[in-house]
Amino acid sequence: MTVRAAGQAAGPGDTEAGAGSTGGPGDHRDESAATGGDVFAAALAARPGGHWLDHSDGRCDPLPVHRWQGPAEPALADVVARCAGPALDVGCGPGRLTLALSRAGHAAVGVDVSARAVRLTRARGAVAVHQDVFTPLPAEGRWAHVLLMDGNIGIGGDPVALLARCRQLVHARGTVVVELEPPGPGLWRGYAQVGSRSPDGELRRSGAFRWARLDTVAVHVAAGASGLRVRETFAAGRRWFAELAAG
Ligand SMILES: C[S@@+](CC[C@H](N)C(=O)[O-])C[C@H]1O[C@@H](n2cnc3c(N)ncnc32)[C@H](O)[C@@H]1O
Questions:
Q1: At 212, which helix (H) or strand (E)?
Q2: Model confidence pTM above 0.85
């Protein structure tokens, strides 16, 4: 069941860098990856070297692949503490949060479009399904929480469509816990590419795929447009989050 809102207009303060945008990570746009091709594969392999995300507005963020491969960091304890029932970790990567949720006693399932991510999550002893979040998933409408960490609000390049999809996944009293940008930059939508450099200097780039960023202010508009409301925004360490309620 797909609820993509591809033609959605950007809101006030948005920077819309859609199909006609130029500059940034080049013109090779992999539309098959727009909704979740395995574009993070090189970073998930955690090969030695550097991994980063190039955005089409020129921003470049290092990808914290060692964090993804390690145990859940302290900031995630605040996220786990908010969970009081079955939780779906969307874009779970190697599954450190899925595992932390299970260890906290919750039924937790990771979802990832990358076969490698699913294998790594299962190897840790957590449960994961190899699916695109926009395709049918187990227990739709019955999850107590859906989690979007580590920039995963960018998945699909349209936060309203992604949050609306998450709204479908939770039950009427469920929540969506989402990691956000600190207040200021608003909503940005455009393209991104995963870049990797091996220790011997070889540079690799994924195809370009749709991506987005959302801050703690713009989340109010995006949540409202997707049938959710912001229950609370909170910071943990230097990271920012919001809990969005369905009811
Ligand atoms: C920025 S990384 C986040 C890593 C992760 N949260 C972790 O703890 O390792 C984005 C993750 O989302 C996955 N992903 C991207 N598009 C997806 C989609 N449409 N459905 C499900 N997972 C997706 C990627 O394969 C990748 O593992």
A1: strand 209-214
A2: yes
For CA atoms 44, 165, 170, 220, the dihedral sign is: positive
Q: Residue of the nearest CA to atom 23 in ligand 1?
A: 91
Closest Cα to atom 17 of ligand 1:
36
Q: What is the pLDDT of residues 37-50, one digit of tens each?
A: 688 888 888 677 78
Provide the strand spans (E) within 7-166. 15-16, 50-55, 60-62, 87-90, 108-112, 127-130, 143-148
Q: What are the domain boundaries of the chain?
A: 25-246
Per-residue pLDDT tens digits for 172-206 = 999 999 999 999 999 999 999 999 988 888 899 99
Query: From ligand 1's centre to the CA of 242, what distance in Å?
Result: 19
- Ligand 1 atom nearest 149 alpha carbon: 6
CATH code of domain 25-246 = 3.40.50.150
- Ligand 1 interacting residues, C-beta cut-off 6 A: 35-36, 40, 44, 68, 90-94, 96-97, 111-114, 117, 132-134, 149-152, 155-156
| DSSP percent split of the chain into helix, strand, coil, nearest 5 | 25, 30, 45
